[in-house]
Structures are given as C-alpha cells and as structure tokens.
Amino acid sequence: MKHLFSFFVLLSFGFNQAQTVSSPSGKIALTFTLTAAGQPTYAVNYKAKAVVLKSNLGIKLKDKPALDANFEIQNTKNSTFNESWKPVLGEQASIVNHYNELVVGLIQKGTNIKVNLVFRAFDEGVAFRYDFPKQKELNYFIIADEETQFNLTENNKVFWLPGDFDSNEYEYNETKFSEIDNSKINMNNGIGVKSIPGKYTVQTPLMMKSPSGLYLNIFEAAVVNYPVMHLKADVTNYKLRSELVPNAIGDKAYLQTPCVSPWRTIMISDDARDIVGSKMILNLNEPSKIEDTSWIKPMKYVGIWWEMHVGNSTWDYAGSQNATTDFGTKLASSGRHGATTENTKRYIDFAAKNGFDGVLVEGWNEGWEDWSGNWKEEVFDFVTPYPDFDIAAISAYAKAKNVKMIMHHETSGSVANYERRLDRALENMVKYNYPAVKTGYVGKIIPRGEFHDGQTMVNHFNFVARRASDYKLMVNSHESSHPTGYGRTYPNYVAAEAARGTEFNAWSIGNPPMHETILPFTRQLGGPMDYTPGIFEIKMSHYDKNKTEQVHTTLAKQLALYVTMYSPIQMAADLPENYEKYPDAFQFIKDVALDWDESIYLEAEPGDYLTVARKAKGKQSWFLGAITDENARQTEIKLDFLAKGKKYKATIYEDAKDADWKKNPIAYRIRTVEVTANSKIKLNLAPGGGTAISFEPIN
After folding, report:
1. Contact 545, 533 (CB under 8 A)
2. Mean pLDDT, 10 residues at a time, the chain of 699 residues
3. Which of 87, 483, 549, 672 is the Cys-Cys partner for 526 at CB 3.0 to 4.6 Å?
4. Which residues are catalytic?
5. Domains in the chain, ordered, with CATH?
6. What are the two backbone dihedrals, phi and then psi, of residue 597, each rounded to the nearest 5 degrees?
7. Is the pTM of this model over 0.90?
C-alpha cells in the first residue's frame, strides 16, 4: 500500500474566489464558488466541456437557520492521495485509489456555524460531501432537507427507476430526461409495497448518456447513519435535486457533530467501460474494520427457493396461510412444504456431488403461515424449525458431506422483532455451523411508518452486518436499501439484492431482456448483487401448461450472467432435476470462479450489451461472459488478455443458430477450440442471448 500526500493551506478570510480541483489525468475538473449571497456552488467539466452547470449546495435544518447561504471561505486545503489496497473478495486482486482533494472550510455569518465541503476528483468522476466538525454552535441537529443540485447540460438518455421509498425492484425505464414520469409506469409489476412521492422522483444510481456520447452516472457512497438519496427531476430544465427519504414523522436525519454526509458522486466518461468498471464507490468507503478476514469466503450454492416460486412447494408448513402456534394438535402438514429434512438432504447430496459450497433453505422456521401483508410484529423467532425440519440432523448430514448450510432469516419487514432476537438467531447459526445468512425484508417496515430507505433502516442493514461480524458470519441481504460500498468496511456483507431479481420472472411480467445489461451500470456499482441466475427451464409452462410467464433470456445467457453479474455468493437457482437434464451446460456453472484476480470490461453499452473477461483468483483460468438485450448481436473479441505464449482450451457455451429468448430459449451449443493471446473469437448472440466461455491453460 502506498500513500502520497502533498497539500497546502490557503487562508482566505473575507473573499470568495473560485477554487478548482482536477482529476489526476486532468480530464475532469470541479470548480467551487460562493455566490454574492454566500451560497456554495460547484460545477464540473470533462475535457474542458461543461457537464454539470453551476449547481447549489446546502442543508436545510429543522428549527435552525438553513446552511445554504451567508457563508464565507475560512480556509481551503488541497491534497493528493494514491494507494493500492486488496479487497477480501472482489473483481480484482488490488484496487487503485487515486484522487486529488479540495477541502473548503466555510463559516456562516450570523450563526458562526462551520461546515467543510470536501471534494474529490478521480479519473472516472468526482465526489463531494458535507462535513460538520465538532463545534459549540452546532451539536445535535436534524436535517429537514438536503439542497444538493445536479444541473445537467443536455436532454440525456436516462435509465431510471421511480424514486420509491420502499422498493427498488422495478424494471428500468429507458427514456429521454424530459420524459421521466412515474405516472406512466405500469404498476401491475409484482411489487407488494409501493411508496412513490411524486411524478418526477427517481432513484440513484442514475445512468445517463448524452446526445454527444458522454456517459454520466449520479450515485452516492458510504451511506452511514443517513437516509438514501433519491433525485427530483426538473424535466424541462434538465436539473436534479436531492430528495432524502424521510422517517415516520417527516424528518430526514438525526445527527450529532462531528459527522459527515454520504458522498455524492458523479461518474463521467466517453467510454462506458470506465463507468461499469469503476471502483470509485468502494474507494470512498472506509477500509475494512475486520482484522481477521480469513473466515470470509466465496460460496456457490443451491437451495430450496425456486421450487416455491414456480409453485412446486410452499414456504409454510400447512399451506393454509392461516396462523396458529399450536403445531402439535391444530396444524398439519399439507404435504407440499418444501423445507423438509428429506428434501434438504436431497439438495445437500446434489451440492456435494457437484462441488457446490452451500445449500440455502427457505421456509424452514415457524411463522410462514401469516408472514406477509399483515404488518405483524411477532412473526418469526428465527430459531424454531417446523416439525418436519430437523435442524440438528441436517447440520450433521451437511457436515459429513462437506457442505455448508446457508441460513434464511425473513423478517417480513418487522425489523423491531428481528433486532430483539438477532443475537439468539446468530448464536443459533454458530451452533449449527451456518457460515452465512440471507436476510429478507418483504413488506411494510416495523417500526410502523418507516421506509426501507430511511435513516432507521440504513442503520439497521449496516448494524446487522457489523453484528454478524462479531460471530464471524456473512450476510446477504434482500429487499434492502441499495449498497453504497459498505462491503469494503465490513467485507462480511458479501452481497445484497436491492434490485429486481430473477424471482420476478416466475410470477409477474418479469424482467425484460435489457435488464441485466443495465444492472452492472447501476445497482452493482455499490456492491455485489445476489441475482440468482442459472435458470434452465425458462418457460413456466413447464410446471403448469396454463402459465405464460418466463425468464426473458436464453439458456446461454443464464450461463453468461455468472461472469457479467459479479457476486462472491452465487446461486445455481434452478431445480436439481433441471440441471441433470442438461449436464453439459451445467458444467459451466460448476466450473466458473467466484473470486477474481483481474476483470476486463471488453465491451459495454448500458441497456444494450456487456462483455467481460475475468481471471480466477490464484489460477491461470479465465472466464468470459457476453450478454445482449432483445436484439441479436454479432461481435469479435480479441483474446489479448490471455497470458502470452500459452495455449488455452476454450469451451464455448453459446446460443444455437435458431435460439431466441421468446421463441426458442433453451437452444444452445457447446464447442471447444484451441486459442492463444493472438486469437480472436466471433460471438453470435441471439435476441435476449449470451455467450459464456471458459479458458483453461493447456499444459
């Protein structure tokens, strides 16, 4: 690790000159100024061209004067930082963190309140945040609003989700900025809880492409003790303003100095690969607070999960959705319960046979009879199994087979209940040798009136990761607020969902073919996503001839997702019997790595296509994934990322000539060729299709 610092301090009392900080390459420049009224502002240029016009900064306080005017510059400080750090799990073995920083110390006339504005310029973008130092003039305070603006220059193409306070599980809209309008969204989309504040509020990360071909992404990093930031769009003037998610009584954040806001980030490049491959969000988070990380390991898993979504079995024991606690006399098994001892052992056997690390079981514990939609507080205790799930016997069976069990804690949004019982739940995991937990937050939040994206819930998601680390347990959260790089600080927070996942394909309008080409540019900038790929029986009519739902991809694309959708915890989501029907295609899922030394984004266009090559951690093997949207695509890939002078066996899993996500999704072919770093491979992707390739050195 290398740190290089150089800085100077400029005392500038009484005048308000512009201050500029540029990226290490000089391509990006951010300029700070105070208006005549003492309003802090900033602007951003890329290659000397305006990208963000002069935009206001400021904080509205509850019951105190606003921190948005009457400021003077007290001092400024410039510095440079350059380091290389090694993530515990990740897309590459080491990450460079190189930026130039400008800190502007402000003091407000009349109140004498001090606020520091911290600006960082990276080669892929800029970041800034509000820093409130310890001071007698400001101790405890409540944020009523954040007045951060992003004033854009053009009517960009935008990939957006409605700014829902409770859900990020929408399909993406691809429109012009001027066409953002939540009132036009089809709300028959399978989302149970919706809390959209207005027509023009959108979520971050907000991915854009200008008419001139510039790629922009507005997001946030290191959201800690603060609510999620959405954005309110002025669709006429191409302006965005921060929209913090409120709590139950309308306040945004409760803070005490010293404290900081999350980073507000703007990524900028004329090459989309710079956006999707950026580690800027991770770099803006604090280093790992876990000293011994040896227990944090990647996991490839199967599980009792998809069979419930396709209707083969149920989460609840009785299948009645009628609660009772008297299991001995009143509640009888329906015979369709998925989480039985026998069925779990079947999955353990399958995992052991195929070299998988773990097995997830949902529906193992009492409470599923009335878990959803009732706003019930005491719904699960997270330790009591159903009568047909022998947790001790299963744990022993898995251990004998060298398979790890993954715990499932569905809270149904009752966070108060989960936090009361959390330690006992984690102790139960340790007792039965469960190294990881998948948490779920379906439904309206308890404490009642809170939102999934408010300060209370952000603190909860981060707290669970921290508390789990005390027990040396890994966390994979679902229905959480979007990750913003906190997995760097607590690397046991290995993955999250926080976006529309695979399960929506089983019982709703599903995810359109372009969905997976957008997520790496948006949701995944904040951390790995547990997307649950690997569905081989793509049409739900396989289970019920009357069903019309399906996964909107080809089978080959499902394989490619294991490379394009990075996560150190990856599920082979389909049923064991479906994999056994296609053992040749299943081989790629068995072979593909989870942790990487190097990742190279070869081709990228949000909403259209993505091609990624990755080198397995500590090995010479490479894997490639290429995906497309609803349009067929032909391309040629240079293999110059392979080691020079070595020969490789390339096993290519690709769409058949007549493959089509809708008409013929399971049509695939597998071929092998010998290649070197001088070779090229032509890829032919079907509509909604993909290609997956493994490269193994030939000894």
Report:
1. no
2. 43 64 98 98 98 98 97 98 98 98 98 98 98 98 98 98 96 98 91 92 98 97 98 98 98 98 98 98 98 98 98 92 60 91 98 98 94 91 97 98 98 97 98 98 96 98 98 98 98 98 96 98 98 98 97 98 98 98 98 98 98 98 98 98 97 98 98 98 98 95
3. 483
4. 503
5. 1-134 (2.70.98.10), 555-561+580-699 (2.60.40.1180)
6. -90, -30
7. yes
